[in-house]
Write a structure and sequence with these properties.
Blueprint (H helix, E strand, L loop, with lengths): L2 H12 L7 E2 L2 E2 L4 H7 L4 E4 L9 E10 L2 E10 L2 E10 L3 H12 L4 E5 L4 E7 L3 E8 L4 E8 L2 H4 L5
Antiparallel strand pairs: 1-2, 3-4, 4-5, 5-6, 6-10, 7-8, 8-9, 9-10
């Protein structure tokens, strides 16, 4: 191999990989069977409303996400995960953030409003995004990981 080609290959290998958004090994784009393999107690069913974003959902109320007890919902379209929503107690935020930073990298946006006791972090790739919001007063937190324009389409009335 020519030295210039070898140098280019080594340079590309040193670049950080794009964030791979997944829920304990179930990535965006995974099939429903992969969701059921990883989350055997998940209940999957057709959506009760018409949406361009998804046609099925799988819910698990006893999920473990990065060592935190959570509830998780996977949204699928044509047997491919388009999004997942992880809901957890905001008291676990400090425990979860180091794992998310290690897995997804530094957030593109991170803000905290100490007066309102609100926290938000967002990671983006070209096609996917992860948004974490936490209402520290109400003890509710959610991490929505989605592909494309999922957030705009999921509840749009048709």
């Amino acid at each position: 191999m020519k030295p210039s080609v070898l140098l280019l290959a080594l340079s590309l290998a040193a670049l950080p990989a794009a964030a791979s958004y997944d829920a304990n090994g179930v990535p965006l784009g995974a099939h429903e069977r992969q969701v059921k393999q990883r989350y055997p107690s998940a209940y999957c069913k057709a959506l009760e409303w018409s949406s361009l974003a998804a046609d099925r959902r799988c819910d698990d109320s006893r999920a473990d996400f990065a060592g935190v007890r959570a509830r998780i919902t996977f949204y699928l379209k044509n047997d491919a995960v388009q999004a997942f929503d992880v809901r957890f107690d905001s008291k676990q935020l400090q425990r979860l953030m180091p794992t998310l930073r290690e897995k997804y990298g530094k957030p593109d946006v991170e803000s905290e409003d100490p007066e309102r006791r609100f926290f938000r972090a967002e990671w983006k790739t070209k096609t996917d995004r992860a948004v974490l919001v936490s209402d520290l007063e109400k003890h509710r937190a959610s991490l929505l990981v989605s592909r494309g324009n999922f957030e705009e389409e999921i509840y749009r009335v048709r």
